[in-house]
Design goal:
heterotrimer, A: mainly alpha, MetI-like fold, two-stranded antiparallel ribbon, 1% strand, C: mainly alpha, BPD_transp_1_N (chain C), transmembrane helix (chain C), membrane (chain C)
Chain lengths: 304, 559, 319
Amino acid sequence: MAAETETGSARVLDRYQRERLVKLARSIRRNTKALVGLALILGLVVLAIVSPMLISEQAANQMNVQDRFAAPSLEHPFGTDNFGRDMFSRTLLGVRISLYVGITSVAIASSVGVPLGGLAGYAGGAVDDLIMRTMDILMSFPPILVAMTITAVIGPTLNNAILALGLVYIPYFARVTRSEAISVSQEEFVEAAQALGERDSYVLFREVLPNAAAPIIVQASISISFAILAAAGLSFLGLGAQPPTPSWGLMLQQAKQYLTQAPWMAIFPGLGIATTVLGFNLFGDGIRDILDPDANTEFGVTDE
Amino acid sequence: MTDDNHFDPTDVDRRRFLKATGLAGAGGMTAMAGCAGGGDDTEEPTDTTGGGDGNGDATPAETEEPGEIQEGGTLIWGHSEVTQNLDIHQTATASTGRFLNSVYDALVGLTSDLELSTDPDIASPGLATDWEVSDDLMTYTFSLREGVTFHDGTELTAEDVKYSYDRIANPDTGAIMQFVFGSTESVEVEDDYTVVVNQSERYQPFLRQLAFSGTSIVPADSGDTIGDEPIGTGPFEFVMRQQGNRAELEAFDDYWGEGPYLDAVEERTVTDPDSRLTGIEEGDFDLINDIPLDDINDVVGNEDDDLKTRTWSPLSWAFLNMNNTEPPFDDPDFRKAVDFCIDKQALVEGALFGNGEPTASPSFPNSAFRNSDISPRQQDFDRAAELFEQSEYDVDEFDLTFKVTTNYPWHVDAATIMQQFFQQAGLNVEIQQLQWSDWLSQVFANQDFTLSMVNFFTFWEPAYLYTSLWTSDGSFNFRGYASDEYDQAVADAAAADGREEAIPLYQEAQSIIHEDVPDVMLWFRDGTVAAKNNVYGLDTVLSPNNSELNFGRMWMDQS
Amino acid sequence: MSLARYAVRRVVFLVGTLFGASVITFALVNVLPGDVAVMILGTSGSQEQVEVLRQQLGLNQPVYIRYLDWIAGVLQGDMGTSLRFGDPVATLIAQRFPASAFLAFSALTIAVLVAIPMGIVAAVEQNTWKDFLTSVAAFTGISLPNFFWGMVLILLIASYASLLPPSGYVSPTEDLGSAFAHVLLPAGALGFSLMAHITRMTRSSLIEELRSGYIELAKMKGLTNRRIVLRHALRNAFLPVLTVIGFQLGFLFGGIIIIEQLFAYPGLGRLAFNALLNRDAPLIQGSVLTIAVVFMTSNLVVDLLYAVIDPRVTAGGEG
């Protein structure tokens, strides 16, 4: 995730900015949390790429009712579900869906929230007020409630759930970016660019935002973990992925009916979610520690 | 009807069911709307407790220890659904009816054999002691039971009946059973205990429909308050309801009939099936309806359990809906090919855990109207391929959406299984889970669907069943099936001189839809209740209208 | 800025935001597809009946009129009548609210009661196996959805051990023992992630406090370790913990919706969710707005508490 953001924005970075990020990357190697998080994420990405090559979706959907609720065995390492489908294949295919949900919804949220927050912080005044008050209103609802309502409005599909979560997380990106943009705007190089008569949009996108990248990466990493949890919740309520999609949230929904007969139907998708969320949480946390070694931080909560 | 929101489950046990269908054959008993035929027209009130009525006593069943009825105690009922609008005339939900049935009485009584009766000692006794119907079916004169008190202490008179019927007939009330009075010109009070209904046109099902609980009698001028505080003449009076959580009924001391034996009934809303079962096993509840499908086999007939159960079939009948007005399902060959793709037994196993059986006809298994010459098509992918080939469309030219409601989780499971069958046949189908409200508005009301599935309850009566579901202008023909041949067969059956003449016509209608495959018939599903071993009168709790529970004759051994 | 002025400013902001929230709620609900009239009548409604019902329910009026009607009513305490249940929305909410409040309060209490001792142990015995175990528990706590924990609790405690009922609600005013028995599992599930966050936060802020100068001073003054931790450090570490709670309120409230669903718990979240499923517009509006009001008020209370404890906040002037 971090790597993607770095290379993706490399074109707009000058040497100074690039050096800062390289420094960040170096210190990741010395931070256990960030390193473990990164390792987990990379491992999951590999699984997401490899498992669809080894297991066809058709095989994962293959039913065998006679073999339903089979406990974990050599043949079915994660057991089988109420249709006799192999939970191992389904759980592995779930990796890709989970990453897709987390990354896409955060991409949506940040692509709207970051420019908005940057604008608010950079422009200040009435623009700032207008944007941030709107964000306040959006944040006056618990995120899952809004996501639930939006998904119910536009129809329950996985992509709609992603869209809803993307919308819900916009204010969080706007907030982080704004406060970062305010401090960056006061730095010399921004003032210099303004003095040189650069257009505001140039200053905002070329000078301010790239220098606010690191906290945004942190926010993104942590938001991905929240989004994955929230999407699982939506699927659990029937508002996300549709059967027979091997989505972890949906698997948990199905497992709920058969908890006593087949607890493994819940355990393995649960482990999947845990690993993914943990990876992004650790990574985000680690980076924050690196950026601000003195700050008192835990899991995305800053002691301001 | 289809759902939790309307008439709902056919709570008939097997023993009672046999009698019910036998009689349905004999008398063409119609408890549903719009039925145009299939029965004799003038029902004489019966007042016998003989033979047919096995429901009057509290300890009838062979499975229960006969014993002295004990009075007292509170029965805690783990109820499967949330009760809704408490106005008995407005409420469209089976869940509310299931709860209010012990509070209200209708004018016309109904035995467990679905026979109209004035006998007070039947499953669903009525408030009329006699009625006279003119030969032209234009005037109905009812004599009321005397000494009946409402829960508010007032005495039942003809004014209350007139008020109730006028209220239901008034379109502004939004009464579900308004259609019953569609041909009613006036309701007149002749004296305190005599009511006359004048009809503007002949409407043969009228008398039977006055046995619907939706036409129950409420006190005069209570329309504004009965939604909050139901007041009826039944064995239990309403105490309180905390919506979505629990409600209480209390024995009504001045009840006009026999019973009630219990002091109180406490309803606890427990929509999660597993919680209901765990709850009764741990002693939190005395009775639950709907045992979770995957647990039925463990619970029913398990001698070690401290529970007794009743299982009956069918509770409901389910079918695959194909939109007959749009490609590819406007082609009968394509529809029949889909039928050949589906292994119905596998569906019953996979989605219902075996608690049901495949059926080719929606008529109840022992109904005289059922066409026993047709049977479910066996899964045959070769035949399916031939038929797809023969149809005007290619099997792989569509990406179909299968809209299924989460209101019935086993429907989602069934759709998931069928999706695999379709994929094997090369047909691309994607599932979309819909909330019940969305299903109703998209599939049922706006016909915005290609593939779907739903189940119907209480369709024991052929005229109503075959008219509403498959005639071109049938009120439940949301799939848009249109066949002149079928319409004619059903019309002829409705106009037939008698039952014997109607039987072959309804059977022909079944053959036509079996060949045309407007829908794929899937299954009959079993119904269940479970109670603790100290609960008696379990055979009396299921109302003859196949939907509701009446606790008036239940009792508990408290020793 | 004085505390009072800060408080007033915050309340004014709250009112403004709530007004915006009411517009959003109403707008969202009124673009919901699905016709409540069809829903109410189920499969029994004819086209005319649906039309009559729509008329009765006022569904045929323009949206802005309906909004004004609604908001005028809300200001007078009348949130309209539930289309589905026929009861006043305010009554339904009033019935459900205590259940949810009880659940949220229990979750918070459980979380704090478990987490703070764990955090203290981890901090005082930093880098021991106890600390390590606490970290593992905390990370596991935040990495799984609360409904997963709910399922685990149902399975282990309700099904296998049969210790507590798996669902339902009993009012604490009715039977306190039974009320706690019913609320423990959902509150536990709901409190898991909160617990994890508070544990970690307590640990790290306590470690920091323990390192700081005045603790050394206290030690020199001869105070016992136990007293130092409890009296000084813990009080100073309270602020970050309060932050976590404030930050986690959104998740707590969001979690309630799913947890109430899982445990068939008759609270506000379940009411809102079912209203959504039923397209019961007045009830969705009422319950969603109520949740927003409670959510924002709780946020405000946390912020004000924060300001009372730490005067720097009001000086900063951040709204």
